[in-house]
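ingest -> validate -> predict -> emit
validate: passed (alphabet ok, no gaps, 824 aa)
predict: started
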Amino acid sequence: MKRGCVSRCTPKEKEIMKASRIHVCWSVVLAVLAVRCLAAAEQGKPARDYHVTPVPFNHVQVTDGFWKPRLDTNRAVTIPYAFEQCEKTDRISNFEKAAGLKEGKHEGACFNDSDVYKIMEGAAYSLQVHPDPQLRQYLDRLIRVIGAAQWEDGYLFTFYSLPERQPDKLWTSIPWIHEQYCVGHMYEAAVAHYEVTGDDTFLKIAQKNADLICRVFHPQGRTDPPGHQEIEIGLCRLYRVTGDEKYLEQAKFFLDQRGRLGRRGPDGRGGLYGTYGQDHIPVVEQTEAVGHSVRAAYQYTGMADVAALTGNMDYIQAIDTIWNDVVNTKLYITGGIGAAGGHEGFGGPYELPNMTAYCETCASIANVLWNHRMFLMRGDAKYIDVLERTMYNAALSGISLEGDRFFYPNVLESIGQHQRSPWFGCACCPSNVARFIPSIPGFAYAAKDHDIYVNLFLGGEVTIATVENKVQLVQETRYPWEGSVKIRVQPEKAGDFAVYVRIPGWACNQPVPSDLYSFLGETPDEASLMVNGEPMPLQMDKGYARVQRHWKRGDTIQLDLPMPVRRIVSHDNIASNHGKVALQRGPLVYCLEGADNDDKVLDLVIPDHAALTTRFDSELLGGVVTIRGQAETAKRTLDGRIVPDAKRMFVAIPYYAWAHRGRSQMTVWPARLPEAARPKPADTLTYRSKTTASFVHVSLDAIKDQNVPVDSADSSNLQLDFWPHSGTTEWVQFEWEQAHALSRVNVYWFDDTGRGACGVPKSWRILCQDADGQFQPVKNRGAYGTEKDKFNSVEFDPVTTTAIKIEIDLQEGLSAGILEVVIE
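emit:
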């Protein structure tokens, strides 16, 4: 949202605007609308819903030093910046063209409408807690444009509206064009806007579209499930605010169409796109997380919503089983999900690589939403444990401290090839962050009957409505830097009820609610709790300390959570973490970054006996607690052994704060044993050479790092490849200051066919530099091999030279790459 953009109206826009003028007195309007919204919410309240009721985010006032700055940055920087990017990239002009305000064709990806809707949802949340007339005007104008872009029958999708309406193309490519995904986000934005302002203009646009969806998709009509799950969540939100049963029925219908027998192939796993879109078998028969991780987690969230609103136990059993699969075998220590970039999704059990981790920011947000629903269903703190881990680490990593730089994937290791981006062509993650950050206070508290749940530790206050009372809680804490939490309990009227205070799993010697990760050694310190200064035994109930008593104004709970630095190791089946250790303090996972460690961290080894200290640095990265200690470095010898080399002090920072100081190495899992480190390479001819290439995609240094791949598809240690070049001749050159006698070159080819665009080359050859500086072919004694999963060795008549070149002919339609080169 750029300054002044509200007033930029054409004559036609002014016509559209006549019906809706902005009221001047914002505070009066807000108060009146709040009463109207409350009445509407009560009127449309569903007969059945989650067992536990969340406390809305707008009832929570956050004042602490950790989250309040992030909420302020999201409001003041991220949301305006995201709207501005949507204008620059034609996302908003697509709506203006579809409304007849401008001329032109559709620009950008087919699903770009969804980014605008997500940012609008975040803007509505922001208005709830920080009224801003200019932002309100901007939203009102945008809603009028969206309404003008809607077709008479309710259809709303700019991709098929430009350059003119194309009714013959509607619903012709449901798996990939994402009409339903986009409007699902529109429903969520419309509900948020209505609940905040009481203005039903946007809500009516959403209902008109949802009514069309219900007319088109039903047992006697279209039965295709959505290509990208999301509309199911939006339909449930529409049902909750309107009380119209058909929206809930439509959400269930879409879920039940996935994996239908009539669309399966001969192997029984067909559907529109099989496991990638969770369309391989019916949702109630699914037992493991597969495919695209954002689609999957949105599906599980939608299943939870429909189950809560209908009581469908088959859905509940399915998502219980899938949740166990994720937490037992597919969850990163940061809380991220999605191991593979090729399909942006889940790998197999225990397949959790670090440098190639995907952990899409959108998937982390979806994981938070899913786990919050699971908590509301079960009242169990283990779901909040996963939510908190994901929120503080994998999700928060996706947005910079400044609020205008982003990560799409969130890797757990880097050799310096990663940096935050100002925007993306596919901008689902920045727009999702814009709505996610202001929603965080809504995960902190909940109520059930007379009782209250304290899930997250955020300094501030909240008013919670229970069955017969209103209770104000005031939290004072410096969490996550300190474990002391003071909660003043102030009921409107004194009474008997329970306050359930979560004792995080990490404070009970359990990093995650499974054996996927475990702490090295147990801490003698335990969580403690006092009420009015008197120690209370922890009466644990599903991960909560249950404090049942007759509460009166001024009663105080004091919770103290020990926060020593904890070492974490992985399940033996996670091959990528063998011999490695992660560091955690409180809810925060730490990483080592080159900016604090002489530019190199991957060769460090942190022995189990190394003493670790902490220090709060107010000047570093917005103020963080750092972990410090002494590590050893590892070096590879010429005979291939890995040995200690030297001692070096190290500094670790919270993972969410990395990549703010330029490109550098980073790791969440430093070695605890020398053989697990990425050692300093031995002093070989290949390593000593000055290396150049005709083109570099990914990493040139990877071909001489002396890390032998598992197979040709192994990109965990990176590779040099020439993508997107294909059918060309490329080269890699090695030079030395002095001449060397050479007679053999070994090349390990990179081939990711099936998930990428690199295959083995069509042919290759070795050339050496002569005395005149010209490159001549060597006299090879054997064939130039192009076999996968092994070194291809070529011996040649000995030459004495200062440079050799490997020339590579790429196949037509395929690129090629190299994992490792050894020159002898």
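Residues 67-88 form the longest helix (22 residues).
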